[in-house]
Amino acid sequence: MKRHDLINQLKQQLKQLEQDVLQHDAKLPPGQRKMMQDVERFNNELFIQAGAQLIPCIEQLNKSILQLQQLITAKRSLESISSSCEKIQDRFSAVRRALATTNLNIKSLEQQKRTRRAHAIKRGAKAHQQSGFSWIASNVMQNSHQLYEELNKHLNWAKVIEQKIENLQYSLENCHSNDKIKLQNEILAQHSRLGKCKQATSYIEERIQLFERPFKGQNR
After folding, report:
1. Alpha helix locations (H) across the chain?
2. Which one of 12, 64, 182, 184 has the largest count of C-beta atoms within 10 Å of its C-beta?
3. How far does CA 8 lie from the centroid of its chain?
């Protein structure tokens, strides 16, 4: 094959590959693009590219073909030209392979995400068991809506307890001396309940913060 014909053939291959890549990229749902945005699918010696979209590879392949054309025009050695051709064919093969494996990559990432979530839930359940707040159902810790409901519940309990303490303090100031010890003990008991309630409120607020930035730092 004449070298001029070789360049024309490579350009035709690139034109067809570009159409396949454009169709591939256009069909990618936003969720898949986001999931793969930091994924490097190629060896850096082939392409500098990250993410699901493959169109950046076409521009780099085009530059490789132009460089080959320059080698031929400059009448460089057969070894240099052959090496350039091999690299170009490797790049064509890599893009075609990437076109065929995007769905497999997505499924693999989704499985990794499910696995990380399952491990995080397991760790969270264990931490909850050791937290000292066992009266809060463990399944509540895995649901943001239920977490907010639990937070409101504890905030309301705290208000009720504070009001009860205020009423007891008023009764203590106006009670008979024989009832003072009983009321004082009741006030202490209510303060203890209030302290536990506020600790639980802080605990739930921390869990909400963790839930609202799900597994940040584990996604990569």
Report:
1. 3-26, 30-35, 55-73, 78-129, 144-174, 177-212
2. 64
3. 44
| 10-residue averages of pLDDT along the chain (220 residues) | 78 95 93 87 88 93 94 88 93 94 88 79 65 64 78 93 92 83 92 91 85 52
CA dist., res. 98 & res. 36, Å (int): 13
Give buried/exposed letters for 136-158 (b at 16+ CB in 10 A, else e): beeebbbeeeebeebbebbeebb
- How far apart, in whole angstroms, are the C-alpha atoms of residue 100 and residue 95? 9
Write down the residue that tokens 């264990």 correspond to: 126
């006030």: which residue's tokens? 187
Query: Helices 55-73 & 78-129, crossing angle to 10 degrees?
Result: 160
The first and second tokens of residue 150, run together, are 């639990």
Q: How far apart are the first and last CA of the chain?
A: 47
pTM of the predicted structure, to 2 decimals:
0.56
Tell me if 39 sits within 8 A of 105, measured CB to CB: yes
> Residue 217: in which H helix or E strand, if any?
none
